[in-house]
Amino acid sequence: MPKINCACGNVLNISELPSPYGSKVISERDFDQIRDQLMANSGSPQALRKAVYEDILGFRNRGIKQAYVCPQCWRLYLFASASDEQPVAVWQLEKGDGSILLSPGAQ
């Protein structure tokens, strides 16, 4: 999924990692689970590293969703996983702008 063709006509090239248009979305419940797992695995540096990069914050954790925002119209595309091809939901901004979700210089 290297590109998103936004409904406004803008094309988001998301092949750059990390993407300047991308954000991670974690529910409060999943955030609490991740925090608890990190605390449980903090016994040794190796266990903590494995927990952080492989088990908890990696692509295998279905509790972490991937979102991309269009810098032109501020539509938000939500994917169940960073590796998914199609978004599970798309929102159009009602108020303000979505620049808070962009990396500096992404516009």
Give the gist of this structure.
With 107 residues, the chain is an alpha+beta fold. The protein folds into 2 domains: 1-25 and 65-107, no CATH class; 28-62, no CATH class.
Note down, in words, how this protein is organized.
This protein is an alpha+beta fold. The protein folds into two domains: 1-25 and 65-107, no CATH class; 28-62, no CATH class. Helix content is 23%, strand content 22%. The chain is built from two helices and six strands. A four-stranded antiparallel sheet has the order 3-4-5-6. A two-stranded antiparallel sheet has the order 1-2. 16% of the residues are buried.
Reconstruct the topology from this structure:
Blueprint: E1 3-5, E2 11-13, E3 22-26, H1 28-40, H2 45-56, E4 64-69, E5 76-79, E6 89-91
What string gives the helices and strands in order? EEEHHEEE
| Helix-strand makeup class | alpha+beta
Number of domains: 2
Overall mean pLDDT: 85
Please give the largest β-sheet: 4 strands, antiparallel
Strand content: 15-25%
The total of beta strands comes to 6
Which spans have pLDDT < 50 for at least 5 consecutive residues?
none
Q: What's the helix count?
A: 2
Strand order of the largest sheet: 3-4-5-6
Through-space gap between termini: 20 Å
Key words describing this protein structure:
single chain, 107 residues, alpha+beta, four-stranded antiparallel β-sheet, two-stranded antiparallel ribbon, elongated
